[in-house]
Amino acid sequence: MKSTLELIHERPPKHTLPRELYLSEAAYRDDLAMIWHREWVFAGHTVEIPKPGSWFTFQLGDYPIVVVRGDKGEIRAFHNACRHRGSRICSEAKGRSPKLVCPYHKWTFGLDGDLIYAPSMQADFDKTDQGLHPVHIGIVDTLIYVCVADNPPDFTPFQRDLAEYLAPHQLENTKVAYESNIVEQGNWKLVFENNRECYHCEANHPELSLSFLDNPSVSGIAGAEDPALTAFWNSCEGAGVPSRFKVNATGSYRLLRTLLTDGAKSYTMDKQPAVGRRLDTTGLDDIGVLLYYHYPNTWNHFMGDHAITFRMLPMSPTETLVTTKWLVPKDAVEGKDYDLENLIKVWVATNDQDRRLVEETQRGVSSPAYVPGRYSDISEYGVNQFIDWYCDTMRQRLSN
Question: Is the pTM of this model over 0.85?
Answer without folding.
Answer: yes
